[in-house]
């Protein structure tokens, strides 16, 4: 290697080192090695018919504090979790859950108007509040989702309160499989809620935990704010 080539190589290496140090100082270096994940809607096995054209609003979503962070949180054992620094949600988890629930409900009620904020409409409106109590993701094992939900029926005189527990196993490692399992679990919760809505509108016997006055729904929203 001649003298000029040696100088050029040293200069090049020095520039690369300087860039990496700069990226590290600004926190950008870590971003180069992060993967971003997103919950997805799942096509239901069948559509449901409430008998009337509905408007459905996903009013509110709460999630456990331990998973309310940008990173995926992994279950190591029943008493221990690990934050996956290199695996990030594409947007806040509670926002993703609200959006995916809205899409899942739209797929279940194809003629409904579904949104995450109230819309001006003449349609009978169903309002949903979701309390995610457990959002567990165990690498190589699967996902467990426990959700308490409250549904304000169109007549605004009663609230349906239910609780869904869904477990989805995974047969492969990796975060993609876990996120897909959580998406499937969330879709199953939506089926539970959709069936409760149909039962309430068609005046069938309820399979939910309790039935409350509509004032309970408003109180629930206030206590979660």
What fold name goes in the CATH topology slot of the largest domain?
Rossmann fold
Largest sheet strand order = 5-2-6-7-8-9
Helical proportion, percent range: 25-40%
Query: Could you say which overall geometry the principal axes of the C-alpha atoms support?
Result: elongated
**How many domains make up the 3D coordinates?**
2
SSE ordering: HHEEEEHEEEEHEH
Q: Please, what is the average pLDDT?
A: 82
Name the CATH homologous superfamily of the largest domain.
ABC-type transport auxiliary lipoprotein component
CATH architecture of the largest domain: 3-Layer(aba) Sandwich
Roughly how many Å apart are the termini?
69 Å
State the name of the first-level CATH class of the largest domain.
Answer: Alpha Beta
Low-confidence stretches: 23-32, 207-218, 220-225
Strand content is 25-35%
What's the number of helices? 5
Mind describing the biggest β-sheet?
Answer: 6 strands, mixed
Radius of gyration over C-alpha positions, nearest whole angstrom = 23 Å
Structural class: alpha/beta
Number of strand elements: 9
Domain ABC-type transport auxiliary lipoprotein component: 37-194
Organism: Paraburkholderia phymatum (strain DSM 17167 / CIP 108236 / LMG 21445 / STM815) (Burkholderia phymatum)
Keywords: Plasmid
InterPro entries: ABC_trans_aux
């Amino acid at each position: 290697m001649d003298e000029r080539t040696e100088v050029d190589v040293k200069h090049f290496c020095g520039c690369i080192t300087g860039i990496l140090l700069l990226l590290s100082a600004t926190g950008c270096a870590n971003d180069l090695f992060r993967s971003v994940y997103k919950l997805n809607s799942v096509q239901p096995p069948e559509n449901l018919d409430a008998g009337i054209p509905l408007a459905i609003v996903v009013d509110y979503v709460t999630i456990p504090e331990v998973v309310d962070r940008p990173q995926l949180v992994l279950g190591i054992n029943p008493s221990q979790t690990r934050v996956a620094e290199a695996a990030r949600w594409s947007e806040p988890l509670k926002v993703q859950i609200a959006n995916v629930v809205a899409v899942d409900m739209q797929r279940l009620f194809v003629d409904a108007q579904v949104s995450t904020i109230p819309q001006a409409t003449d349609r009978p409106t169903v309002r949903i509040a979701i309390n995610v109590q457990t959002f567990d993701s165990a690498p190589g094992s699967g996902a467990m989702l426990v959700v308490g939900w409250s549904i304000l029926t169109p007549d605004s005189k009663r609230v349906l309160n239910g609780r869904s527990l869904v477990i989805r196993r995974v047969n492969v490692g990796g975060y993609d499989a876990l996120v897909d399992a959580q998406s499937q679990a969330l879709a199953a919760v939506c089926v539970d809620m959709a069936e409760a809505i149909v039962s309430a509108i068609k005046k069938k016997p309820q399979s939910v935990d309790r039935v409350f006055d509509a004032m309970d729904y408003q109180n629930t929203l206030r206590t979660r704010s």
